[in-house]
Amino acid sequence: PFGLPRADRRPAGIVGFSQYDKLYADVELWWQQGWLDYLAPQLYWPIAQTAQAFPVLLDYWSRSNAKNRHLWPGLFTSKIDDSEASWKVDEIRQQIGLLRNDAGSSGHIHFSAVALTQNRRGLSDVLAQHIYATDALVPATPWLRQNAVVLMAAPTATLRCDANVDARAAAPCRIDVVNVTKTEGLLWAIWAKYGTTWQFSVAATSSTFLPEQSSGQALRQVVISRVDRYAVEGPRSLLTRP
Length: 242
What we know:
Elements: H1 19-22, H2 27-33, E1 38-39, E2 42-43, H3 54-63, E3 70-71, E4 74-75, H4 89-101, E5 109-110, H5 113-117, H6 123-131, E6 157-161, E7 173-177, E8 187-194, E9 197-203, E10 207-210, E11 213-214, E12 217-227, E13 233-240
Parallel strand pairs: 1-3, 2-4, 4-5
Antiparallel strand pairs: 6-7, 7-10, 8-9, 8-12, 11-12, 12-13
């Protein structure tokens, strides 16, 4: 929906179009009742624009999330272009930073993908190198599985690191999960410990490969868990390198 709250509820200093009065859309009611799995208010203004201040609007939607649903605000990423009026890449980067520091927000949406596919002003490079540099899990949606009997067991798995793991693999360490059923887990969440540093990744198969070293540090331990179709994570298992 539009990013501005109802006129009778919006924070002081916020002005502009009211979807409640003009479009007859009572978004606050939907949000408070939990009738939405996620809400994506269009926060299409720069941080410094006082009349539609991004941080103030984010705080409003975050605090009114009574049913703890997903809050994934929309960002006006396409405002980055070749014109003199273009937003700076750092505007989007800072907005994502505000979202990640807000406990009520678990993601964001770019409008539109064209700005990313065209890599406007190097935006896609910045996001890939600094914002989306590692894998991430989709936020869990447990309320959709409340009537389903889903009991995921901790994975029983093996970790091998030797020259005979797989001649075709570029990475010489292999994880194999042995207690796999079709009804459990669609993805695997993997934390690999190199020296004292943990690295996270997501795998789609019960057999996957990891580098034996990272930044000069050898692989020591791996933690692995199942993730179901609702992005709910099951119990974790710890694997130690022989």
